[in-house]
Amino acid sequence: MNKSKFNITPFLFIGPAVLLLFVFSFAPILVSLGISFTDMNLSGLANWSQINFVGFDNFVQLFQDEKFLQAMGNTFFYVIIGVPLAVGSSLLIAVLLNFFNNWVSSTFRVVYYVPSITNIVAIAVVWSFLYNQEYGLFNYLLSLINVDSVPWLEEPVVARLSLILLAVWKSNGVSMLIFLAALQSIPKMYYEAADIDGANRIQKFFKITLPSMGFATFFVTVTTLIGWLQFFEEPFVMTNGGPLNGTNSMALFIYQEGFQYSQFGYGAAASFVLFAIVIVATLVQFKLRKTD
Amino acid sequence: MELKNKFERAVVLFILFAGGLLVSLPFIWMILSSFKNDREVLSIPPTLFPENPTFEHYIELFQNLNFGVYLINTLIIVLFAMLGLLLNTMAGYGFGKFDFRFKEGWFMIVLVTMMIPGQVTMIPTYLILNEMGLTNTMAGIILPGLIAAFNIFLIRQFMVTIPDDLIEAARLDGAGEFYIFFKLIIPLAKPILAVQVILTFIASWNSFLWPLIVANDESLYTLSVGLALLQDENVTNYGLQMAGSAFMVVPIVVIFMIFQKYIVEGFNVSGIK
Q1: What is the mean pLDDT of residues B250-263?
Q2: Taking the domains of chain A in order of start, what are their residue ranges?
Q3: Which of left, alpha, beta for A268 (phi over 0: left; psi -120 to 50: alpha)?
Q4: How close is the nearest chain B Cα to the Cα of A164, in Å?
């Protein structure tokens, strides 16, 4: 290609997308960093002269804010329980599906994938009905085996677990497909060789299957972890952070500060704390993989 | 690993079937409940199949509630999302097949926005829309989600694999740049674009957060925002709630079932495995 002459063509191709991306995705990062050091709120939005530079005050205040600390604790609760469950269940489904290579595998692949393509509001409406303490299906089914009615969304710890159950159900699809692709790329002869050596199924799973899927497992774990750190939609539509702030997550806290209380500066500061945690968690994962 | 005998096959099949039933239970319950009348839907013990199947809830969605308006708004968003996909594809082609000044710098912007969590940009994007006077407008709902950095990245990865000679040959034949793009590149990129079209359709049909933040007037609500409103206003009318949910979920499931082959294959195309 002729480099000496200025060529407009590539800019016609990348121009519209890059411009939009710059205005609505890249510039906001800089704006966010800027306002996180200010006390910007609704009056600051109307009149910029009302905005004051407050240095690190927002960050200091965040770590004294009980609501934020609780949201952070809840987020870790979600991650510690949710990530292993989500990765484990999608791996289990993939392993079971991989036994079949006919209509069974293609049908159930769709069945298990469907929750992840459905709308979160619709999901929330349906699950709120299922979780309803009086009229819900779950408590009815439990009453059949003489279990007392469970306060699915009314008690903080139970509510957190209920949201995790819903989120795991919803998130299995994509990870399952990645695991399935990885499983199918393991050469058959590994297993044949193991058979000759008389290895049993458990040994084959831990010595052949899991090690061959190192990268897929790593990829799924990292993306799942990042996703769960940003846990937002489920508590937002199901419980709005309640009861007693018991299901609030960091991402939901940011939304509430920004759009319910209009504390833009404070919310932006919280978003950088979350971002820092995401970066640290990702780096730790990469570090752990290297030492393997 | 393979199963040794028929018994093992039956056990695994049973587990898959039971799990599949559990996973589908919310959807089955949603559809069954949406056809029950107000009394039956709250009855204890619950009935499995509606005793007197009724369409009243579905009719109410359109007659007394504004689901017709929500549907049109949602379809407008879907339409523009497809335009956004075209812009993503153009950008992916531009980054994959051209050399130009500061290319790495521009591409860095794409990569950085890909890695930043949505919560970081949520508040400032709203402030920017507010400065542009776009809050409570359709443009304000559409613009923030129009370009997806990850899609540009994915499409670029594919474009790189198209041989330069092919494009050069077309240029020597006197084809214009956009003619080459639409007549040569897009047909070549069909496998990956097919996946992107379906995923873009699903994502835009489901889009919730930006319509919720930006739209104040009910005339701008999408199906998901309208459904959230319905739930707030009809707390115990579960039949109506289930009908509204089914109206959102069923079309997407049908579309997915028709095209799922492309998505599953697309995972191999995009090279994630």
Answers
A1: 84
A2: 57-291
A3: alpha
A4: 15
* Domain match, B162 and B110 both: yes
Q: How confident is the model at residue B264 (pLDDT cuts 50, 70, 90)?
A: low
Whether B35 and B164 share a structural domain: no
Interface subset of A 48-87, CB within 8 angstroms of B = none
Whole-number Å distance between alpha carbons of A24 and B126? 9
Domain range for B40 is 6-56
Contact map slice: A 167-226 vs B, CB within 8 A? 169, 172, 177-178, 181-182, 185, 191, 201, 204-205, 209, 216, 219, 226
| Secondary element (H or E) of residue A134 | none
Residue environment code for B159-171, b if the CB has 16+ CB neighbours within 10 A, otherwise e: beebeeeebeebe
Structure tokens, B212: 């919720």
- Please state the ipTM of this predicted complex: 0.84
Question: B39, B74, B99, B120: which to substitute to probe chain A, counting the most A Cβ within 10 Å?
Answer: B120
Provide the pLDDT for residue B84. 93
Q: Are residues B46 and B172 in the same domain?
A: no
CA–CA distance, A62 with A60 (Å, rounded to integer)? 5
3-state secondary structure of A152: coil
Contacts by B42-46 with C-beta closer than 8 Å and gap 24+? B42/A135, B42/B236, B42/B238, B44/A134, B44/A135, B44/A140, B45/A140, B46/A135, B46/A137, B46/A140
B26 shares contact with chain A (CB less than 8 Å): yes
On whether both B189 and B144 belong to a single domain, the answer is: yes
Nearest CB among B94, B95, B119 relative to A271 is that of B119
Is residue B1 situated within a structural domain? no
Would the pLDDT of A206 be above 90?
no
Identify the architecture of domain A57-291 in CATH: Orthogonal Bundle (1.10)
Contact A14 B91 (CB under 8 A): yes
Provide the domain count of chain B.
Answer: 2
pLDDT in tens, B68-104: 899 999 999 999 999 999 999 999 999 988 888 888 8
